Amino acid sequence: MPSIRKNLLQLIFSGASMKRWNDKLRPIELYEIDKQAHKMSVAWILYELNSRELSAEAKLDLGIAIVEGALFEYLYRLVITDIKPPVFYQIKANPEHYRRLTQWVLGQLSPRIMPLGDEFRARMEAYLAVPDRRDLAGRILHVAHIYASRYEFHLVRDLNPFDEEMGDIENDFTDTLVAHADLAGVPGLLKAGSPLDRFANLCGRLRFQTRWSQTPRIPETSVLGHLFIVAAFAYLFSLELGAGRARRLNTFFAGLFHDLPEVLTRDIISPVKRSVSGIADLIREYEGKALETKVFALLAGGGEPALAERLRYLLGLFTGSEFDPAVRVDGVVRKVAYADLAGALGTDAHDPIDGGLLKLCDSLAAFIEAYAALRNGISTDQLQQSIVRIRQTFQHEPLQNGIHIGALLADFD
């Protein structure tokens, strides 16, 4: 089977240039990639809360359905970028029109997703064939979409008092969330200032932090958007590697949250961390303390200690780094090698996280951010040095965590 190539990774990254609410006056530009990351942060909350009574198998099934459903919807959205939501909703209301549009979208996506195999394409086709999914995964994704959209709406609402649509938009958002209040977690998200609402809002604030803040770039990615890019890359590469469901799912959500501490500390660029002796350890110590007081205590104090513990695991706090491959053996978290994940410890029963793959995807996302800026005419020493450094890091290790990274980087001429 062929390997994932440049065109799929660039398609995923293209959401960093896709503006939202662009018919409204906005305090900042709002981008699709940020909304997707915020949506999936909320989806993770709802997934954890609504799967507690499920068997281990059923919980994994639900998690995979949520993550893949989100990726299918996102890829679809990227292809139909010029179709405004009101027009798209009318198309969805007509089964024949929606079927024809979906077939065209699948035709556009097929060459890019071919390395992921026929089964992945078949799952995408089956998912997109149903315009409004009402199973548990579909409902969770819909609520998460509405919550993230409403968050953005609240940013633009007060700047548009002259816009007659604003009242109807807010009512539609609220009515939709209330209609799903039977789902665990939705009442908490609806209650302003509740622990769940505060945590979800905390995740959303990462859209305000620009990566590479000292370096001009086009497009400018936020920390929040970067999280979704890394998570999506990690899931797709996990599929290419033939990883089990738990490993795919855990690595996706670990990618989605791996820079969460930066909402408390801001983005500190790697050269600073490497150049000042001891600064990396000091930053990590401060991040740990801030997470304990402002995130974990918030969730645990709000009656969700299990949610806090799960987040600790995804953030790599039991092993020392989010980039450490980790498993559970007899309930104890262990740091392991990549070879262990590829063997007996990579099974669903060991709840594995592929931290090494996560690190690779983090570097690859940074590479594409710098590469896109250079291709768009922004040339700075820092961007050039980043491209060179990442290439040099992997040039002597063409096979990294099972991924042919040398061949992949060679795609980017």
Report the biggest beta sheet as strand number plus sense, adding barrel if it closes.
2 strands, antiparallel
What is the tally of beta strands?
Answer: 6
The 3D shape can be described as: globular
| Average pLDDT over all residues | 92
Class of secondary structure makeup: mainly alpha
Strand arrangement, major sheet = 1-2
Number of domains as seen in the coordinates: 2
Helix content: 55-70%
- Indicate the CATH architecture of the largest domain: Orthogonal Bundle
Question: Under the CATH scheme, which class of the largest domain?
Answer: Mainly Alpha
CATH superfamily of the largest domain: Hypothetical protein af1432
Q: What is the tally of helical segments?
A: 20
- CATH fold-type name of the largest domain: Hypothetical protein af1432
Radius of gyration based on Cα positions: 21 Å
Report the end-to-end length measured between terminal Cα atoms: 23 Å
Give the ordered list of helices and strands: HEEHHHHHHHHHHHHHHHEEHHHEEH
Topology summary:
Elements: H1 6-13, E1 19-20, E2 30-31, H2 32-50, H3 56-79, H4 85-93, H5 95-113, H6 118-128, H7 136-156, H8 166-179, H9 186-190, H10 195-204, H11 223-241, H12 245-257, H13 262-265, H14 270-275, H15 279-301, H16 305-314, E3 326-329, E4 332-335, H17 338-341, H18 355-375, H19 381-395, E5 399-400, E6 403-404, H20 405-410
Antiparallel strand pairs: 1-2, 3-4, 5-6
